[in-house]
Specification:
This protein is an alpha+beta fold. The protein contains four helices and ten strands. The chain has one domain. Helices cover 26% and strands 40% of the residues. The protein has a five-stranded mixed β-sheet with strand order 5-6-2-1-8, with helices on one face. A five-stranded antiparallel β-sheet has the order 4-3-7-10-9. The longest helix is centred in the N-terminal third of the chain and has 19 residues. About 9% of the residues have low confidence. Keywords: Signal. It comes from Acetobacter senegalensis. This is EF-hand domain-containing protein.
């Protein structure tokens, strides 16, 4: 291998190590939500990623007895606590969010800023032809929280996204859609 190719490989390796090192969240608690529409079920998938500097605060909220172990009961309680900070309505009617799935990473991953808490909430619906307005609000988890929210492209060809509106911080989201 020529000296030029070796140099190029060294630069690529160095750039790769920088990009992976900078991928860790630092001082924010990212709460990213995707919304998946279907006529009989609306799914909200939250991916919660505490940064290195806020991980201890988040862990204290989850690990209620402070023993350094996140039990299934503590994980479930935290998921329900997150749900209390969410509001969801369809055409002005508030609908309950039901916890369907929750997965928690290892504590070491959370402390490193790479661990993602995954929560899936379902809303049972029986949507018919017509126009719909969905409103979603995430009250978050404190001043270090940042939000992202987006709707996935529907699998059902009769569902049509008409428009999405977000607040500047994306804690508030509105979606207009149509079923034909």
């Amino acid at each position: 291998m020529s000296l030029g190719k070796k140099g190029l490989l060294a630069v690529i390796a160095l750039m790769t190590s920088f990009s992976s090192a900078s991928a860790h969240r630092l001082d924010e608690y990212l709460q990213a939500t995707t919304i998946d529409l279907a006529q009989d079920l609306i799914t909200l998938h939250l991916r919660l990623t505490p940064g290195v500097e806020v991980a201890e605060r988040v862990l204290k909220q989850i690990d209620q007895n402070g023993n350094g172990i996140l039990t299934p009961q503590e994980q479930h309680a935290y998921a329900l606590q997150v749900a209390k900070g969410l509001s969801f309505s369809l055409n002005g009617k508030t609908l309950p969010l039901r916890l369907a799935i929750s997965t928690f990473p290892a504590i070491a991953e959370l402390k490193a800023g790479t661990g993602v808490i995954s929560l899936q909430f379902n809303v049972q619906t029986f949507l018919k032809r017509g126009s719909y307005h969905l409103a979603y609000l995430n009250h978050g988890s404190g001043p270090d929280t940042v939000w992202l929210v987006n709707c996935l492209v529907p699998h059902d060809p009769s569902l049509h996204i008409l428009g999405q509106k977000r607040s500047v911080d994306q804690a508030s989201y509105a979606l207009d859609f149509l079923i034909d």
